Amino acid sequence: MAAFSYPSYLIRASSNTDSHDQNKQKLNNIRINGTSSMSSMKPDTLSQPAGVASTYNSFTSVNGNSITTEELRQNIPTKKRSVDPHRQGLIIEGGVGYRQTVVIRSYEVGPDKTATLESILNLLQETALNHVWMSGLLSNGFGATHGMVRNNLIWVVSRMQVQVDHYPIWGEVVEIDTWVGASGKNGMRRDWLVRSQATGHVFACAISTWVMMNQETRRLSKMPEEVRAEISPWFIDKQAIKKDCPEKIVKLDSKARNMDSNLKTIPDEILESHKLSTIILEYRRECGNSDIVQSLCNPDEGGILEDGLKHKNGISLNGFSLASEILEGSGLLCNFEKVSLRYTYLLQVKGERGNEEIVRGRTTWKRKMPSKPFTT
Amino acid sequence: MAAFSYPSYLIRASSNTDSHDQNKQKLNNIRINGTSSMSSMKPDTLSQPAGVASTYNSFTSVNGNSITTEELRQNIPTKKRSVDPHRQGLIIEGGVGYRQTVVIRSYEVGPDKTATLESILNLLQETALNHVWMSGLLSNGFGATHGMVRNNLIWVVSRMQVQVDHYPIWGEVVEIDTWVGASGKNGMRRDWLVRSQATGHVFACAISTWVMMNQETRRLSKMPEEVRAEISPWFIDKQAIKKDCPEKIVKLDSKARNMDSNLKTIPDEILESHKLSTIILEYRRECGNSDIVQSLCNPDEGGILEDGLKHKNGISLNGFSLASEILEGSGLLCNFEKVSLRYTYLLQVKGERGNEEIVRGRTTWKRKMPSKPFTT
C-alpha cells in the first residue's frame, strides 16, 4: 500500500530539531523487524502556487457531489479493480498481489542498452502506487489510504534492498509483481519481482519496510486500527528475497576513503565497467532540498583487499586508485571477476549538534556483460 | 522514422575540428526548410566494455540464422505491425501514422502533480522510436532504418519546437499521435500531438526537422535513394503546429544578462511560479560529455520590458532581479499575466578558434495554474 519512495522534490528539510529528537524517542517504542532506530524521509507540505484558475482546475458538480476536474482526470478508483488496460495491470496472488507489464523505454536505458538502476527504482515506485490505485484504497496523496489521510498519516520508508541479477534491455517486455505483508506490529513490507515476460527469468527482486508518520508533527505513528482494517486484508506472507539476513551497515566517519560533497562516490572506472548488483539503504532521518549534505564512501575491507590482490606497483586495488587500464594491463581481471566490489556509504547533514545521519547504504558491483552498443 | 533526440549519454565530443569545418561546408549544400546552417548532435560510437559472456549475450541459432539473444529479447518486428498491445500502440492515419496511449507515471510529475517538460520530451522520443518499431524498418540502432545502417547513416535533429498548452497530471491517460513528412529534399519532419484520452483536448504539440549524418565521417549526407524508398511511403503532409513561421533566434554574446557554467539560466522564482509554454531549439554543432560548455541567457526585450512594467522601486521586471514576492506584494501580477515571459539562449563550447555554437534556443513561460499539491 506504499510508494517505494517519495520523489526527491518532495523531500523537505525539517526546521525543527526538537521534532527529530521526539522522533528518535518515539522510534524506541516502535520496533520494525528488529530495527530499533528509525529512518524517515520528510515529504513536507508543498507550497501551492497562486495563479489563475482555468477550466482544468475549476470545480464541477457531478451527481450532487463537488469533485474537482483533477479527480475526473486522474480517475482514481473508489472500489477494487482487477484489471487496468491502460496501466497493463492485473490483480494476482488470489486477489491481493499486483502484476504490471511494462516495456523498457528508450530513455530508460544507458549506452549499453540496459535499463539504468534509476529506471528500475522508478518502475518499482510506479507499480507500488498502481497496486494501491487498483485496491480502491488510494486517497489524494502519494500512496496514502483514505484511513491514513483521515489520520493525517503518510508512509515513510525505513529500509530498501534491491538485487539486480540481469538488467532488462531497451524494448524488452518485463512483468513486475508486487505485494505487501506485515512488518512487526506497526510496519508494512513491500516486495517486488521483476521478470522477463517471454521467459519468466527473474531479472531483479526487491524488499522494503515502511512505517507511518504524522504529516504535521513529523512523528512516527502506530498503525491506527482503521488503517489496519484497510490494508491487512492485502497482506501475504511471501518473500521476494528468500535469505534476508540483514548485516549491520557500519557507520562511516571522517576516516572514510572518499568524502565528497558532490555526492559522486564511485570511481568512473568502476561505473564504466561494472553494474550495480545489490543496493541496501537504511533511512534514519529526514533531509530536504535546503540541507547541505555530505556523502561518505568506503570500499569494503571484506571485498578485494582480503583476497590479497595488490597491484605489482604497490597500488591497492581496493579503492579509488583503481584504474581499469591498470587492471587490464596487469592481467588481474580474471582474479578480479571472482570478487564483487563492495562499498559502504553514509549520507549526513550538518545539524545543530554535529552531523546527523540521513541514510546508510551498501552496494555490490559486478562486471558488466558485453553488449552490442547502439548503432549511432 | 527518427527519434526525437539522442540521450545525453550518447552525445560525445568530436576530437576532429576539421570534420566540423567539413560539416559546415556540407551544410551549405543542403538546405532544410530554409535553414542554411545545419545543426547536429554527435552520438559517437560507444565503447564496448570487455567482460564475461553470459547466457544473455551468447549466440543462438534459430532456423539456421545466427541471431543474438539480444535480438530475441528486443523482438524488433521485421514487417509492419498495426497494433502492439504492450506498447499500447496503433497504426493510424491510413496506415502511416502512430498513436500510443500512455498513463502519466508517478515519477514523471513535479510537486504540482503535472508532467515535467522532460517527461513530455521523453514520451515524444519514445513514441517516435515506437513508430519506427511498428513500421518494420527499425534496425539495430537508435531509430535508423535498415537502409540507413547499410549506408552507415544516423539521424540528427536540426530543429525542435514544442508547445505545451496544458500539462497532463499524474495518472492521466494521454494519447500521443506522431507522423513524418518530407522536409526539403534531404530532410524529414516529425510532428506530434498529445491529447487527453478522455476528452480529446490537445495538451501539447511538437514539430521537428531531421537530417542524416555519416556515422564515421560525421558529415551530413543526402538521403540515399534506398532510404527514400523506405521512408517516403510514410510521409504525409500534415502540420501539428499550423502557423509555423519560425522567427530568427538572435545569437547571444557576452552582453547576455546571464552567463552560467552550471547551465541554470532561469531564476528560481520563475521556475516555481511558471511553466514552460514553448521551447524552440536550433542545433548547430555537435558537443559531448568531455566538452566544457557555457550557457548564455537573456530575458526577451520584446517581453515585459516593452510593456513598460517597472517596479515602483525601480527594479526592472525584465530579468533576474524579478522576485515573485515583489510582484505579488505590489499587485503587479494582473498586468504580469498578460505578458509571457520569454528568454533567448545560447549554448556554446570552447573551440580552438573561439567559442562555437551548439544550440540556440527560445522559451516562453506562462504562470502556473493552481493545483492541489500532493497530500504527503
TrEMBL record, chains A, B:
CDD domains named among the record's database cross-references: 4HBT (cd00586)
Molecular functions per Gene Ontology: acyl carrier activity; fatty acyl-[ACP] hydrolase activity
GO CC, alphabetical: chloroplast
Transmembrane intervals: none
Keywords: Chloroplast, Fatty acid biosynthesis, Fatty acid metabolism, Hydrolase, Lipid biosynthesis, Lipid metabolism, Plastid, Transit peptide
EC number: 3.1.2.-
Enzyme class: hydrolase
Alphabetized InterPro entries for the sequence: Acyl-ACP_thioesterase_NHD, FATA/B, HotDog_dom_sf
Localization of this protein: Plastid, Chloroplast
Ranges where the Acyl-ACP thioesterase N-terminal hotdog domain occurs: 97-231
Pfam families registered for this protein in UniProt: Acyl-ACP_TE
Main subcellular location: plastid
PANTHER family for this protein: ACYL-[ACYL-CARRIER-PROTEIN] HYDROLASE, OLEOYL-ACYL CARRIER PROTEIN THIOESTERASE 1, CHLOROPLASTIC
Family, as annotated: Belongs to the acyl-ACP thioesterase family.
Function (record text): Plays an essential role in chain termination during de novo fatty acid synthesis.
Name assigned to this protein: Acyl-[acyl-carrier-protein] hydrolase
Organism, as annotated: Quercus lobata
Lineage: Eukaryota, Viridiplantae, Streptophyta, Embryophyta, Tracheophyta
